[in-house]
Design a protein that fits this description.
two-stranded antiparallel sheet, 4 helices, 156 residues, 63% helix
Length: 156
Amino acid sequence: MTGNAVAAPTVSTKSTSQVESTGARRLWPVGLAVLVIWLAVLSASLYSPMMITGAQREQLAIAPMLDWFWASMATGLLVLAAAFARPERRDVWPVVALMTGVVWFAVAVASIYSPLMVTGNDPTIIPLMALVAPPAGVVVTAFLAVFAAGAGSEAR
């Protein structure tokens, strides 16, 4: 049966060290950025002022009620971008992590220290930035994630 020999196809694969180094260079910055997001949300939830309404002066903690949702959206955006990013774009992840940290630090500071909106005869006190800053942080995080996932790619 010398005439019926089948040649085995050649398969080229990346070495394990190349795959591990590419993943590690992406995962550490993304992990640190996610940690900073949740630390910022925790500090905003603990220290941002409460909304106070009505003649009975009822207090409602806005930040702890809503910020976890915005932080989970930002976390999902970063993890999704890291999962589908081009391997050759691994050098942008430390910059994206740094910028994400700066954005969410600003979200926490704005939620905690911004002026309050006071309205009405029985003054209703609304911590407006505790409502507005986290969605704005998610929008900026989305732009950073899109940049990191596709920056420098050629048009197809």
